[in-house]
Amino acid sequence: MEASFTIEAALVLSMVFLTLGALIQHAYRLHDTVTGSMILEETLERARQNRDEEKTASCFAEEGERTGNPRLWLGSYRLEITADERLAAGTAAAGDWAKEMEMKTFWPERSLRMCQALLEMRKNKSGS
Questions:
Q1: Nearest-angstrom CA–CA distance, 66 and 43
Q2: Which letter, b or e, does each residue of 29-60 get, where b requires 16 or more Cβ atoms within 10 Å of its Cβ?
Q3: If you ran DSSP here, which 8-state letter would residue 73 be given?
Q4: Is the pLDDT of residue 117 over 80?
């Protein structure tokens, strides 16, 4: 009867520690996937707004890999970026997790021309 309390406490504490371990593992995995996605998005943004043309897509991918390594739980972070005049696309992977993204290339002068054309159309429609 006296040892039953010790045995029950050992069983309960082992379940508590296993649950805490599972929660910590889940938090590490969630951290790795969220930050990996954010690094991919930031790298794609920088690649699509590359106006210097001195940096290639592989330079951006190397910088993103340096930022992403080491991952807490998923292992090494790999990043591939392709960019052309219309589209920037990237793939990030670590362990069994992978994410793909693509974005249109950023051309601010195009949006400025469209705004100017809308203003011209508005002027012509109002008769001034």
A1: 11
A2: beebbebbeebbbebbebbbebeeeeeebeeb
A3: S
A4: yes
